[in-house]
Amino acid sequence: MKQVRKAMGGGVDSLFNNSRVLQNLDDTTKELMQVHSISINRITPNAEQPRKHFSQESLHELGESIRQHGILQPLVVKPSVHTTGAYTIIAGERRYRAAKEVGIKEVPVIIHEVELKEAFILALTENMQREALNPFEEAQALYSLKEHFGFTQEELAGTLGKSRSTIANLLRLMNLCESAKEALRQDVISLGHAKVLLSLTDKEQQKEVLDITIQRAYSVREVEELIALYKKKEEEKSNPTKKRKKSSQQMREIADRMSRRFDTRVKITGTEEKGSIVISFTSKEMLQSLLTVLDEE
């Protein structure tokens, strides 16, 4: 393996500032942390990479910069567990993809021996610092750290330098329906839209509101109003007694108005959709008077 020079620049150092692997390094490990130049064909992306979507326009721009100036920041890799002489990317997959796109044959790397858990944290931290992850990609990465590596929300907050509430809100994005997750990942909807959709626990309703939101290009405020209507309908479905009480009150008010108009007792049964009206009279003269009033109407 050809060594080209020692680790360069503050960027690499800053990448490892909070890593336990820098503690009590032996001479062999320090040697491995120097920058080496290796064939790009010996490098493969990390399947656990938190970023799943790469902007082609962004990669093209980075590729042109690499074509002109080279890769200024080395990739960080670890020996592959599957193939001797091959390496897996810990940090720098954008640089790897862009370099490959413009035909770069060799790339500068720092070879680093780390556990999967630590590698994942390094990859996530690098992506968050260098090019902000899409909110859903960040949520996916946090979810993996929590589910696969046993991180608590407090530990995630401390490790990544974010507040616990930020971590909690990002993890909640995993409760979105699949269509909403994809829409957020593709930037079809904003993080604000996604947070509002989460107020609906029913994923089918999330999908319905999402479709309307996209079709009509609704703002976050308009989505809130739409969801309020959904919740009102759900409340009426789950509490028909309340609806009947409201309907009964409306019918009583109408009966009172008619009683005052006809100057007699009026009784209404049923609802606004279906029912009956009973107008009381006690004499032929009173009946005639009622008919006269009706004729005037």
What does this structure look like?
The chain is α/β, with parallel strands linked by helices. It folds into 4 domains: 2-132, Conserved hypothetical protein from pyrococcus furiosus pfu- 392566-001, ParB domain; 134-175; 188-238; 240-296. It is built from 14 helices and 8 strands. The chain has helices spanning 9-16, 27-32, 56-69, 93-101, 116-130, 135-149, 153-160, 164-172, 178-185, 191-197, 203-216, 220-238, 240-262, 284-296, and strands at 2-5, 35-39, 43-44, 75-79, 87-91, 106-111, 266-270, 275-279. The chain has a 6-stranded mixed sheet. The chain has a two-stranded antiparallel ribbon with strand order 7-8. β7 and β8 form a beta hairpin. α10 (191-197) runs parallel beside α12. The longest helix has 23 residues, at 240-262. It is rod-shaped and about 110 Å long. Mean pLDDT is 76; it is low at 1-26.
Would you tell me which CATH topology of the largest domain applies? Conserved hypothetical protein from pyrococcus furiosus pfu- 392566-001, ParB domain
Helix content: 55-70%
Low-confidence stretches: 1-26
Beta strand count: 8
Which radius of gyration do the C-alpha atoms yield?
33 Å
Summed over residues and divided by their number, the pLDDT gives a mean of 76
